[in-house]
Structure formats: structure tokens, C-alpha cells
Write a structure and sequence with these properties.
The protein has 9 helices and 12 strands. The protein is an alpha/beta fold. The strands form 3 sheets. A 5-stranded parallel sheet has the order 3-2-1-4-5, with helices on both faces. It starts with a strand and ends with a strand.
């Protein structure tokens, strides 16, 4: 029995489809706001603050291996402080809470391990979703400009990584347009588009999306989907640069058609 702890986004849907194709027995702990997986008979509603309850439930179901899939909204600190069900792990979680999401996830994985529950890679049953090579090296910008954007962007993200902050940066002609914050990638893209429109950018921007240092890719691998590409195209972004074998790509065939049609760069490094 495999346990799926699922959050927001489209990724859980693809993982569930693969598990069904492989005829794997699984159950779902649904952390989504609207409990979108309630249609499955093996789905159970949970809250992000119910860690102790989730562990007890998994043990009861003899579920010793789990996947953490999808984006989980970080809970309000007050919700954690006043939740008696978290008292067992409260001191440990509070200690890492303000250090960033990577530290928090690492601590949660440790707690599962202490309870003899192994956290597998979210791609354990879906390795074909990992992007292993560039899908397009075409670009509407000059090679020199592209190189400047890439080198500068990667250097900035590396420096920010020590603060467990930002895995996405958008640049134009060597200038930083936007860096991802708590709002997420899609809102960062929109913000960059508004800036490009306001200042009438002549060239297309470039987005770089790479994991932070010490980011646990088992549970937190960057994702590129069809919506991401469409948003980029509509917001003056001419390409995305990602890390080879460290990025998940959804609806790959549709993405290939879209990027070829729009002369859009999707490059792995």
C-alpha cells in the first residue's frame, strides 16, 4: 500500500493516473482546500496541521511508503500554535518554521522516518515526467544576451538559496525583472509581464527556474506545465531555463507543439 499526501496543482492527477495504470494499491490523504480528490473511494480529507493524526492513520492502514505530491499552502503560524494535535511535534516544527519551506519539509520527512514511514520521490512511479533534455533551443533573443541573462540569473538564485528563498527569476537584457516570492511562479510571471508592459520592453524576457541548494527533490521538484508556458508567452517571456533531470514537465506533447509554434526557448542546463 502506497500513501499519497496530495496538495494543489495538476501534478497529483498525473501521479494517480500512473498508479492506476500500474495497478498499484494506494490511498490518498487529501490536503487540498476544496478536497478535490473526494471522488476517490480511497481518499481521506486531512489538514496540513494534522501531522500526528496522519501518521497514526497511515500506520493503521499498514502504509509504510508515501509520496508527497503537489503544492501545500503553508499554514498560518497561529493555526499551528493553537492546534493541540500538533503538540507532540510542535517544538521541532516551530524551530524550523521560519527558516523556510525546505527546512520545514526536511523536518517532516525526518518525523515520518522516525515512525517507520519512508518518503519516496514523488516521481518514483512517474519517471517519464522528469525533463532530461532541452525541448527547444530556439530563441528570439541574441545568444550574447541569452548568455548574460542565464549567468546572472543563476548566480543570483545561488546566492538567494542560502536563505531558502526563490527558485524562479525573470530577467531582460541582463536586468532583473522579478524574483519569485510566496505568491508562486504564476503570479511572478504576471508581475514580470506587467513590468514589461509598463516600461515597453523591446526584447523578450527569460525565466530561470531551478531548485534551491539543499532542496529535497523527492518532495519539492520544480514543475513546468502547459499553463506555465502559456502565461510566459502572454507576458513577454520568450523562454525558460531549467535544470536537467531536476524538473517535472506535464503534458509534454502539448508543450512541444506550443513552444515550436511560438519560437519559445525551453532549455535544460
Amino acid at each position: 500500500m502506497v500513501g499519497l499526501i496530495v496538495g494543489e496543482g495538476n501534478l497529483p492527477r498525473f501521479v494517480i493516473t500512473n498508479l492506476k495504470k500500474q495497478k498499484k494499491e494506494f490511498l490518498i490523504l487529501d490536503l487540498t482546500k476544496n478536497k478535490k480528490y473526494k471522488k476517490y473511494k480511497n481518499s481521506y480529507p486531512f489538514d496540513i496541521t494534522q501531522l500526528a493524526k496522519a501518521i497514526s492513520f497511515l500506520k493503521k492502514k499498514n502504509c509504510k511508503r508515501i509520496l508527497l505530491v503537489g503544492k501545500v499552502i503553508r499554514p498560518n503560524l497561529s493555526k499551528i500554535l493553537f492546534n493541540p494535535k500538533l503538540l507532540l511535534y510542535l517544538p521541532r516544527l516551530l524551530k524550523v518554521f521560519k527558516k523556510g519551506d525546505s527546512h520545514l519539509l526536511s523536518e517532516i520527512i525526518k518525523i515520518f522516518k522516525e515512525n517507520n514511514i519512508t518518503v519516496l520521490s514523488s516521481m518514483y512511479y512517474s519517471p517519464e515526467l522528469i525533463l532530461s533534455k532541452s525541448l527547444s533551443t530556439k530563441s528570439s533573443n541574441k545568444d550574447k544576451e541569452e548568455s548574460i541573462n542565464e549567468k546572472k540569473g543563476l548566480k543570483i538564485l545561488k546566492n538567494l538559496s542560502q536563505f531558502d528563498f526563490g527558485q524562479t527569476i525573470i530577467l531582460n537584457n541582463g536586468y532583473v525583472v522579478a524574483i519569485e516570492g510566496p505568491e508562486g511562479t504564476n503570479e511572478t510571471i504576471k508581475r514580470a509581464g506587467n513590468i514589461a508592459k509598463k516600461y515597453n520592453f523591446r526584447n523578450k524576457s527569460i525565466m530561470i527556474k531551478v531548485p534551491k541548494q539543499k532542496q529535497d527533490l523527492r518532495v519539492d521538484m520544480p514543475v513546468i506545465g502547459l499553463q506555465t508556458i502559456r502565461l510566459c508567452i502572454n507576458n513577454n517571456i520568450g523562454g525558460i531555463i531549467v535544470k536537467k533531470n531536476q524538473t517535472i514537465i506535464l503534458e509534454k506533447n502539448k508543450i512541444v507543439k506550443l513552444i515550436n509554434k511560438n519560437n519559445f526557448l525551453l532549455k535544460t542546463i
